[in-house]
Design goal:
The protein is of the alpha+beta class and about 325 residues long. Among the domains are: about 10-95, Classic Zinc Finger (Double Stranded RNA Binding Domain, 2-Layer Sandwich), CATH 3.30.160; about 100-160, Double Stranded RNA Binding Domain, CATH 3.30.160. It has helices at about 25-35, 55-65, 85-95, 115-130, 150-160, 175-185, 200-210, 235-245, 265-270; strands at about 10, 20, 40, 50, 70, 80, 105, 115, 135, 145, 160, 170, 190, 200, 220, 230, 250, 260, 290. The strands form 9 sheets. It has a 3-stranded antiparallel beta sheet with strand order 15-16-19. Strands 1-2 form a two-stranded antiparallel sheet. A two-stranded antiparallel ribbon has the order 3-4. The radius of gyration is 28 Å and the shape is extended. Pfam families: TFIIIA_zf-C2H2, zf-C2H2. Keywords: DNA-binding, Metal-binding, Nucleus, Repeat, Ribosome biogenesis, RNA-binding, Transcription, Transcription regulation, Zinc, Zinc-finger. One of its GO terms (cellular component) is nucleus. This is Transcription factor IIIA.
């Protein structure tokens, strides 16, 4: 049986404890929104203000304002049109269900019909043959499975996980072996054009390039009387949670300790105190903040310029963060 190979995944999430991998850069960018909370693609329609993780979701949303419906019903004679393929599929299943092709059981005396061929095959297995309908086509293998996904997963036992890089002969026995090989031998390296510093993915490179910008977009603390500002939404959320809302959801589980922290990373750094091997935590960058804001003549909307003026938060509290 000929099967479609799984798309090669070469874009890996670099956040700690996250093993997500994707075969397209835009998919990784959309995934990173879950970690960063940023939605960089904003609707251009006046007065809307909604933002999205990917250009695709932004473009799909903007169809609401334009009134355009590019996806027409595929059933002959139907003039309905929709903004997304999902809405079109829902329409077809509801409005034209009686017109769809039926898959009928050929066993004499049965006569049951199904909307999908895989439903018919499952029926044949359960009611008539008592054998799983999907058999492995590898020579000498008699394994059978109840659905295509299980068969596809099994077939990888025979062929392994080959590296898709041109000229690379490596084949991993498991998906984990392939991921390890990819990270060690074919890691994507992106270089900053300003200082030649290298990064593992485009998101970290974009964050770093803010250092070289003449102006920076900042996030001001929304709490009344607090003048603190930060270069990332993550740092702003950390500030609000610790200084203003006194949130400490990450509690040390070591017997007799009980200390609590605002950020998961802070708990991880603290945990080395209880480490019998005395391992030192990795050196982390200091939290970047902008304590003084001063408009510049060349300042663009939404941007600010760093100055040396100092503003102190009006709600000073000593918090572990």
């Amino acid at each position: 049986m000929e099967t479609k190979t799984e798309p090669h995944k070469r874009f890996f999430c670099s956040f700690p404890d996250c093993s997500a991998a994707y075969n397209r850069q835009w998919k990784l960018d959309a995934h990173l929104c879950k970690h960063t909370g940023l939605r960089p693609h904003s609707c251009q329609h006046e007065g809307c203000g909604k933002s999205f993780c990917t250009p695709y979701h932004q473009a799909r949303h903007e169809l609401i304002h334009s009134g355009e419906k590019p996806f027409r019903c595929s059933v002959e004679g139907c003039a309905e049109a929709f903004t997304t393929t999902t809405n079109r599929s829902r329409h077809v299943s509801r409005a034209h269900a009686h017109e769809q092709k039926k898959y009928g059981c050929t066993v004499q005396g049965c006569g049951q019909e199904f909307k999908k061929n895989k439903q018919l095959r499952a029926h044949m297995c359960e009611q008539h043959t008592q054998l799983p309908p999907y058999q492995c086509a590898h020579g000498g293998c008699q394994m059978r499975f109840s659905n295509p996904s299980k068969l596809k997963r099994h077939e990888k036992v025979h062929r392994g996980y080959p590296c898709a890089e041109e000229g690379c002969p490596f084949t991993g026995k498991t998906w984990t072996d392939l991921l390890k090989h990819r990270k060690e031998q074919h890691r994507v390296v992106l270089t900053c054009e300003h200082c030649s510093k290298v990064f593992r993915d485009s998101w970290f490179l974009q964050q770093h390039q803010r250092v070289h910008a003449d102006t920076r977009v900042v996030y001001k603390c929304p709490k009344e009387g607090c003048d603190r500002s930060y270069t990332t939404m993550f740092n702003l959320q950390s500030h609000v949670g610790s200084f203003h809302e006194n949130l400490r959801p990450f509690v040390c589980t070591h017997d007799g300790c009980g200390r609590a922290f605002t950020m998961k990373q802070s708990l991880q750094r603290h945990s080395v105190v209880h480490d019998p091997e005395g391992r030192k935590p990795k050196k982390t960058r200091p939290k970047r903040s902008i304590r003084g804001l001063c408009p510049d003549k060349t300042e663009q909307p939404g941007s600010v310029v760093l100055t040396t003026r100092v503003y102190v938060c009006n709600n000073p509290r000593t918090v572990e963060h």
